[in-house]
């Protein structure tokens, strides 16, 4: 899981994130520690983490959980969904998304403003831009929300 995240970050965020972050010698080790905690620490027991596998290899990772901000209007937050670039368009991304969030959940997420591919993916799955951008790890991110209680009129 950690290796997929690191490779995906390097494929997706090169030029958006600082090279010293993407090329840090301990990046994989830090991601491994993150996943060890995310999958075993009882504080994260309400999170849902899943992988997409093709030919015995992990090609994608997704995780959602209770919103980080207590005052959030969301019932769930999509913390991450990453797919190796070679598998974009394979259908694994939508399958991961549907596996970590329920259709009735009001879901929010943060996505890089300079990542139109990801934004288009989320729009295809009912998310809309909401709120003001912020900077996270040196990357300008926007909020997107999917609220199944709302319908868009003609």
UniProtKB/TrEMBL annotation:
Keywords: Acyltransferase, Transferase. It comes from the Bacteria. One of its GO terms (molecular function) is acyltransferase activity, transferring groups other than amino-acyl groups. It holds the Pfam family Acetyltransf_10. Residues 11-149 form the N-acetyltransferase domain. InterPro entries: Acyl_CoA_acyltransferase (IPR016181), Bact_Acetyltransf (IPR050832), GNAT_dom (IPR000182). This is GNAT family N-acetyltransferase.
